[in-house]
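Last lecture ended with a question: if I hand you only a sequence, what can you say about the shape of the protein? Today we answer it with a concrete record. The protein is Pyruvate ferredoxin oxidoreductase beta subunit. Below, first the input exactly as provided, then the predicted structure, then a couple of comments.
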Amino acid sequence: MNVLSPCPPGWGMPENESLAVANEAVTSCYWPLYEVENGKYRLTYRPREKTPVVEWLRKQGRFRHLFEPQNEHLLVEIQKQVDQEWEELLELCGEK
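The predicted structure:
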């Protein structure tokens, strides 16, 4: 089991936003929900609309440096990587 657990002090966000930020990790497909049983992949949640990863990152102080003008290309690369991994997961789950 691999779990994402928000850490408000470490992530640089208010405690009362923990649940929303964790949910956005899922809806952005940065942290997709799936199971693997006996080598068979199964998607357990597919967002109706994907949230751009930048919206999830922006809510966390730990990623503040990514929003400096010289790092804009990094945000583009992160989104590309998340999109690519999501497409690969859909294939593994037979959802594509």
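Comments.
1. The chain has a mean pLDDT of 97.
2. Strands lie at 34-37, 40-43.
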